Design the sequence.
């Protein structure tokens, strides 16, 4: 699973490229909608998203909170692993299905999965799409 | 609750587990504790904020899994708290999820566990305050809330 996020940078991602990437991600089997947000929570590109501004804010909020976790790790035992850790992705699951928050360079992706689809099975395909674009 | 947490310690590449109430305070942890109490509390609060944001956005979730390059965190909403499992990247996520489901179901049926959790009842949304968030997170929260 490692390596999905660390390579490449999307710091200079244009909105046109972000839109194309969002469309490609939304066409990935198992993905219902895709959104790309800047680190500040602005929408860079979206495909199939009913509420892009809210999903961009949600992706940014979740990612920022997730990135705050390792900052407080002590250096004993597993605490060292926390302190050295870099966020790759967050999977959220509930009665309505699953969604993924993925960090890629200076952007966050918010991917809503189709009902019954497990994030574990979609991540390899997402990795392939990201490699093509970034 | 302590007895059920030992089930996680028996899983390969799982470091330990703990439960936080909805204020982020540690209720119980596996022995020896997987992390320092202050670290577990930080996790409890930050993940509580994530659950609160998802609920406010109209997308309530019951489980959050965080993948870092060096570790994994499984967080299961158990009503008046959150069950956390900390593992290395090589752990079997399916086995962890199944054990989480078994433990959560056991606790849901256990009156003494529910009483213990209810005694620490708290509102997750109260974890989200201007003082506890960076400017970007605060702006994001406002956007989430305004679209709710």
Sequence:
């Amino acid at each position: 699973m490692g390596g999905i996020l660390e390579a490449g940078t999307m710091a200079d991602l244009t909105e046109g490229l972000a839109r194309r990437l969002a469309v490609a991600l939304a066409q990935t089997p198992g993905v219902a909608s895709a959104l790309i947000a800047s680190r500040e929570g602005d929408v860079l590109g979206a495909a199939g998203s009913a509420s892009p501004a809210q999903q961009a804010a949600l992706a940014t909020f979740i990612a920022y909170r997730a990135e705050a976790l390792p900052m407080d790790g002590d250096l004993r035992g597993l605490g060292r692993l926390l302190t050295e850790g870099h966020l790759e992705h967050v999977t959220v699951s509930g009665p309505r299905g699953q969604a993924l928050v993925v960090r890629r360079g200076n952007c966050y992706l918010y991917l809503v999965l189709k009902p019954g689809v497990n994030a574990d099975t979609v991540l390899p395909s997402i990795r392939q799409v990201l490699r093509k674009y970034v | 609750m302590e007895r059920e947490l030992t089930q996680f310690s028996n899983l390969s590449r799982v470091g330990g587990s703990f439960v936080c109430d909805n204020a982020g305070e540690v209720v119980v942890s596996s022995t020896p504790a997987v992390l320092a109490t202050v670290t577990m509390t930080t996790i409890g609060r930050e993940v509580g904020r994530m659950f609160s944001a998802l609920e406010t956005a109209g997308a309530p979730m019951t489980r959050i899994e965080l993948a870092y390059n060096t570790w994994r965190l499984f967080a299961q909403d158990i009503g008046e708290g959150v069950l956390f499992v900390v593992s290395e990247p090589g752990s079997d996520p399916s086995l962890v999820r199944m054990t989480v489901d078994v433990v959560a179901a056991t606790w849901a049926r256990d009156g003494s566990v529910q009483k213990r959790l209810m005694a620490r009842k708290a509102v997750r949304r109260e974890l989200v305050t201007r003082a506890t968030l960076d400017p970007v997170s605060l702006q994001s929260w406002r956007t989430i809330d305004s679209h709710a």
About this structure: The first strand of chain B starts at residue 14 and ends at 21. The CA atoms of residues 27 and 133 of chain B lie 24 Å apart.
